[in-house]
Amino acid sequence: MLETRFKWLYAASLALSGAILGQMLLYALQQIFKWKSLFNIFDLCVILFKDLHVPAPVAWHAVNALILYSFSAVLWISARHFLGSIKSMKLVERYQDPHLTEQYRDKFQLAEGRFQIISYKAPIAMTIGLWKPRMILSSGLMDMLEPNELHAVIEHEKCHMVHRDPLAIFLLSIISKSMWYIPIFAWLADKYPIMIELRADQYAITQMKQSAHLGSALLKLLKQSPTPHVSLSHASFAETSMNVRIMHILDPQMKLPFKWPLIRLLISLLTIILLVGLI
Questions:
Q1: CB 104, CB 115: distance < 8 Å
Q2: Region 175-189: what's the mean pLDDT?
Q3: Which of 97, 165, 229, 249 is the Cys-Cys partner for 160 at CB 3.0 to 4.6 Å?
Q4: Is the model's pLDDT at 52 over the cut of 80?
Q5: What stretch of H or E contains 134?
């Protein structure tokens, strides 16, 4: 039930942010090319703000600054991710162990190019890539885990690949940072990765038909030093809410401590009405 609500909230956030960015783009094009203003369903909001006697120059400059910031943030985050992806791929190719990669890819029936093992001492298990996600494991992780624990980790990462979770994390990062003035986006960007990890944990438990191996793998990783920082959007086995995940593995029926942010929802709604009304 909770996962379904998060999915709907995620979809609604993408649709809403896309609509706002689309309207901002239309507004900017109208200002640049002097197009005739097109009718939209928010024209009544414009009338409302006129009735509130909001000074036109103040509103115009504020909206232009907000639009410039939002699109600049989108471009900056996208460019940073793109450059981070290039750098990370070069490192992966540099440290890749072709023999181990082929051996385990065949063992777990993973497609070519969707799974790579790198020779790296620190334990790493993550899924990267927006359109064609791939699983990255390190030799340090494989040395640390027992075969069944490693199997559970691979099943966990498979779930991230199937659902393209790095793409979801990337999109939420963009909308939460480019539209920080709508606080529900920041809340979702913080909580949704937890739900992603819990879903992947549940998938791994289902595939393994028990939770002991996944739980012991998490505990081992919890005792290790932090995973090296990666600058691009990714879904990592050992970076998100370890304590919550361990408790959920021990008691799958436990109620997760999520409180729906009613105040943030209200502020977000008012902000959207104000924005669209001014635009």
A1: yes
A2: 91
A3: 165
A4: no
A5: strand 134-138
What span, in angstroms and rounded, lies between the C-alpha atoms of 43 and 40?
A: 6
Q: Which residues pair with 235 in a beta bridge?
A: 127
List strand residue ranges (DSSP E) for 22-132, in order: 115-118, 125-128
List the one residue out of 164, 139, 154 whose CA is nearest residue 235.
164
Whole-number Å distance between alpha carbons of 91 and 118: 9
CB-neighbour burial class of residue 190 (10 A; exposed 0-12, middle 13-18, buried 19+): exposed
Helix (H), strand (E) at residue 138: strand 134-138
Residue with tokens 């593995």: 249
- Matching residue, tokens 């949704």: 192
CA 44 – CA 102 distance, rounded (Å): 61
How far apart CA 40 and CA 19 sit, in angstroms, is 12
Tell me the C-alpha to C-alpha distance, in Å, between residue 197 and each of 126, 237, 243, 248: 11, 8, 12, 11
pLDDT in tens, 122-174: 888 889 888 889 999 998 899 999 999 999 999 999 999 999 999 999 999 99
Contact (Cβ atoms closer than 8 angstroms) between residue 169 and residue 193 = yes
